[in-house]
From TrEMBL:
<dbReference type="InterPro" id="IPR023603">
    <property type="entry name" value="Low_specificity_L-TA-like"/>
</dbReference>
<dbReference type="InterPro" id="IPR001597">
    <property type="entry name" value="ArAA_b-elim_lyase/Thr_aldolase"/>
</dbReference>
<dbReference type="GO" id="GO:0008732">
    <property type="term" value="F:L-allo-threonine aldolase activity"/>
</dbReference>
<feature type="domain" description="Aromatic amino acid beta-eliminating lyase/threonine aldolase">
    <location>
        <begin position="33"/>
        <end position="322"/>
    </location>
</feature>
<protein>
    <recommendedName>
        <fullName>Aromatic amino acid beta-eliminating lyase/threonine aldolase domain-containing protein</fullName>
    </recommendedName>
</protein>
<keyword id="KW-0663">Pyridoxal phosphate</keyword>
<comment type="similarity">
    <text>Belongs to the threonine aldolase family.</text>
</comment>
<feature type="modified residue" description="N6-(pyridoxal phosphate)lysine">
    <location>
        <position position="229"/>
    </location>
</feature>
<dbReference type="InterPro" id="IPR015421">
    <property type="entry name" value="PyrdxlP-dep_Trfase_major"/>
</dbReference>
<dbReference type="Pfam" id="PF01212">
    <property type="entry name" value="Beta_elim_lyase"/>
</dbReference>
<keyword id="KW-0456">Lyase</keyword>
<dbReference type="InterPro" id="IPR015422">
    <property type="entry name" value="PyrdxlP-dep_Trfase_small"/>
</dbReference>
<dbReference type="GO" id="GO:0005829">
    <property type="term" value="C:cytosol"/>
</dbReference>
<dbReference type="GO" id="GO:0006567">
    <property type="term" value="P:L-threonine catabolic process"/>
</dbReference>
<dbReference type="InterPro" id="IPR015424">
    <property type="entry name" value="PyrdxlP-dep_Trfase"/>
</dbReference>
<dbReference type="GO" id="GO:0006545">
    <property type="term" value="P:glycine biosynthetic process"/>
</dbReference>
Amino acid sequence: MEQDTPVQSMNGAAVSASKSTTWLGRQGAAAFDLRSDTQTTPTLEMLRAIEVTTLDDDVYHEDRTTINLEDHIAALTGKEAALFVVSGSMGNQLALRSLLTQPPHGVLCDHRSHVNRYEAGGVASLSGAMVEAVVPKNGVHLTLEDVKENVCLGDDVHVCPTKVISLENTLAGMIMPLDEVKRISAFARENNIKMHLDGARLWEVAASGGGSLDSFAACFDTVNLCFSKGLGAPIGSIIVGSKDVIKHARWMRKAIGGGLRQSGVVTAAARVGVDTTFGKGPNGEGGLLKTSHAMAKRVEKIWTDLGGKMLYPVHTNMLWLDLESMNCSGSRLNALGAEQGLKLSGNRIITHYQVSEEAIQRLTNVFQKVAEEKTNGHDLKRKGDDMESGIYKK
Ligand SMILES: *Cc1c(COP(=O)(O)O)cnc(C)c1O
């Protein structure tokens, strides 16, 4: 006879799960994986929601679970409509494709932004747009002054006119303040430029008290939000905007093979991620994200108490270690992490609600080892060592 196995739910309470579920709680791999919040695994509540989800066709626009999720996120962000997509890259690309019409057109963004660096050049191949990648003067986020210096206005035949300003929040875990977003948005609107927000981690901004989802969304024509990072859903993102733009995005989603049939199996889990991990209110009230921000701050303190420096301030759940300040390299850090059973990705560390207390203990051991090696004069900057040793670069 099958026995029920007690496991931990996401909020730490013991729940009974039959052995037939793949849920592993904090014993799962994500507990020791600090490479990315994409490594979070679906919670027991998500698996339960999948069991009882509707199984209708979303290309025919008949699946209630999916439609309810889209309506709910549209309402949360104060937009008319929403469209579920399989990934954040697909969301960004469809939103940009829907805001742009035809060349010549340019998309202005931070040089470090996901749409510029990590979407396989989709802005060029799918929208035929030129990316105007800007280095922010303050090193943290773009300002209106950065935008004004780089934007292309006017209709001189030599130039590629900026048609969309694409911002990202958080970017590298850092918050772009709402006031700055408002300034840029007002300038864009005066100049007939559309605004897109890659808000893959906008949930983290809201949970940290940086401003509600709808107050940011009001500054943009389209916003992309991810369910499969800190929220813990297995798959999916969503874009929000006006009815017209979302209608066009739905059409383009079909064109690139993103029309889903029984999408309830993924949207049911995404909904649990919003309600439980993010929390019910517009600022993540009652959710779990704040805890991972506090954890990131603790990790920062452990590192800096040992003499390490940071490359960027820690605003939410992401840390950028200055490994050179400790004579360490990304590959050395990864190796020390592996000895402790931790998965690390060079100098970028991400906390999420599944990271265990035990993982922080082990990470402390890793940091102490790094400090010891520095004291002992090891030169870890060996030839060929990758200083960052992750996909994502500062
Ligand atoms: C993760 C992420 C995305 C989307 O990534 P996918 O892997 O395509 O879901 C988009 N923008 C940012 C800033 C991200 O961190």
